[in-house]
Design brief:
InterPro entries: Cyt_P450, Cyt_P450_CS, Cyt_P450_E_grp-I, Cyt_P450_sf, Cytochrome_P450_monoxygenase
Helix content: 55-70%
Mean pLDDT: 93
Organism: Cochliobolus sativus (Common root rot and spot blotch fungus)
Number of strands: 12
CATH class: Mainly Alpha
Largest sheet: 5 strands, mixed
Structural class: alpha+beta
Binding site for heme: 456
Low-confidence stretches: none
Transmembrane segments: 12-32
Number of domains: 1
Radius of gyration: 25 Å
Cofactor: heme
Shape: globular
Length: 516
């Protein structure tokens, strides 16, 4: 054998050997994952059982809520959606997995939302339960309903402006995209509550500074990163150099960080000049915490910036999705729309509603509360599984034992349509269900704001916004879908965002007689 051939033999052996090793390893993994893995007995898509890529693609398609409902319909209450993860559709499992004392912990799924400049993880991305509780207690009072109600006048101003803009559109006979206007409203409310001034979405009727466009680019990118294994996330980040859409998403992240940071710096200047006394907003409350307890609680300017950043990231999309869903389903259900309008009119005539409908007045409208619950039940703002690690020693969930470390989670968009809890008509918009004898049980199975100690910290802001704006709009206008046969569109990347809710607006004859 010639020297040249002798030198080639090892190379040829390597070329042949490497793919053989890869093939054998892959086959061995498939056999293990399908036959011997602790989750092997649970049904689900074949590829989901052998690779996390199935879950990544499912999230990237923006319809994981619909896909998971179909999977549970086909396979039952426990579905394997990744080699070491199952989705659970048992409402009773909400308490097991998400209660404050459950012992279940957040997985690394949430880490892509974490700001790399933060000293402490924010309430959403903190994986340490003890630290999460300690850090959240520092700011809990700022997000309490009692504090939000004290700032209610700020929400009133945004509702007033929205009504003025709708009146103008009604007079012109314009057709509007309700989802667009509701998000402008929600973003302006965040501006007013946190920074004492609306951003200008409603006033100018456009996406101020491109914030919404930035979020629309950013959130899908983050959602895919969340679904990817930790070791692949750097590749997702570096792909920005080659994939224009990812590059734009990374630029959008910097845009949001800069915008929220600028609001904090501007307030710092006002405080330094002694001109911040008139700023009675949430940002000022964070500065007061920093001044009064900062050293004791290790709460500094970085933590203030973190709260402002969180308001930009999650303050508008979730609330806007909920309000849009409620209005959309009301317009598609004339009987419910008529009953709610009648309830509002009766309250008006009885002098129970102020010119600016107050939170305490709205919660007294029982059918309004039912409509809001029903809209959020059918279309929770977050329509993805929220995974947790099974604690040490394993746990029984939905009648099945899972070993410690297994990733398990519940999707509100699935569990809130459980027919065993919500009835045979669970897929329909029926506000009257909330007056049934099992209403308390249904309430316990609602998961749109998460559960336990991890309940969404902005829940009270969202509820106050929707309880005020929905009756205010129905009192002032007749709202109808411009094409009743056309369904809305939704894109579910973390936030299950609706769009193309084209609406015709007509001014109603005012019957207002309540107190000013």
């Amino acid at each position: 054998m010639s020297p040249t051939i002798q030198n080639l033999v090892p190379q040829l052996n390597s070329i042949v050997l490497v793919p053989i090793i890869l093939l054998v390893s892959s086959l061995a993994w498939i056999v293990y994952a399908r036959c011997f893995h602790p989750l092997a007995k649970y049904p689900g898509p074949f590829f989901a059982s052998i690779t996390r890529l199935w879950h990544i693609i499912n999230v990237a398609q923006g319809s994981s809520d619909k896909t998971q409902r179909q999977l549970h319909e086909k396979y039952g209450p426990i579905v394997r959606i990744a080699p070491n993860e199952v989705a659970i559709a048992d409402p009773e499992a909400i308490r097991t997995i998400y209660s404050a004392q459950s012992g279940f912990t957040k997985t690394d799924f949430y880490l892509p939302f974490r700001a790399d400049w933060a000293r402490y993880p924010d309430a959403f991305t903190n994986l340490d339960e003890r630290q999460h509780a300690e850090r959240r207690r520092i700011v809990n009072s700022v997000y309490s309903m009692s504090n939000i109600v004290q700032l209610e006048e700020d929400i009133d101003k945004c509702v007033q402006l929205l009504i003025a803009k709708f009146t103008d559109r009604a007079m012109k006979g314009s057709i509007i995209d309700m989802s667009e206007w509701v998000q402008w409203y929600a973003f302006d409310v965040i501006g007013k509550l946190f920074f004492s001034h609306p951003f200008g979405f409603l006033q100018n009727a456009y996406d101020h500074a491109g914030y919404i466009h930035a979020l629309d680019l950013l959130i899908p990118f983050i959602a895919v990163a969340c679904a990817a294994p930790t070791y692949l996330r750097p590749l997702v980040l570096f792909s920005g150099a080659a994939i224009p859409r990812v590059f734009k998403a990374l630029k959008a992240l910097k845009h949001i960080e800069s915008a929220s940071g600028a609001c904090v710096v501007q307030r710092q200047h006002l405080i330094a000049q002694g001109k911040a006394e008139e700023c009675e907003d949430m940002l000022q409350s964070f500065f007061e915490i920093m001044q009064e307890k900062g050293q004791e609680k290790d709460f500094g300017i970085t933590e203030v910036k973190m709260e402002a950043y969180g308001a930009f990231i999650a303050g508008s999309d979730t609330t806007a999705a909920a309000i849009t869903a409620i209005l959309y389903h009301l317009m598609r259900t004339p009987s419910a729309y008529a009953r709610l309008t009648a309830e509002i009119d009766e309250a008006e005539q009885a002098g129970l509603l102020s010119q600016d409908i107050q939170y305490h007045e709205a919660v007294g409208l029982s059918y309004l509360m039912a409509c809001c619950k029903e809209g959020m039940r059918l279309h929770p703002s977050v329509g993805m599984t929220l995974p947790r690690h099974v604690p040490r020693g394993g746990c029984v969930i939905a009648g099945q034992w899972f070993p410690e470390g297994t990733r398990v989670g519940i999707n509100a968009a699935v569990v809130q349509r459980d027919r065993g809890v919500f009835g045979h008509d669970a897929d329909e918009f029926v506000p009257e269900r909330w007056f049934r004898p099992n209403a308390a049980k249904m309430e316990r199975c609602m998961f749109q704001f998460g559960g336990g100690s991890r309940t969404c910290i902005g829940k009270n802001i969202s509820l106050c916004e929707m309880y005020k704006v929905i009756p205010s709009l129905l009192r002032s206008f007749d709202l109808q879908l411009s094409d009743p046969d056309r369904e809305w569109e939704t894109r579910n990347y973390w936030f299950n965002k609706p769009s193309k809710v084209y609406t015709t607006i007509r001014c109603r004859d005012s019957i207002f007689s309540g107190p000013p």
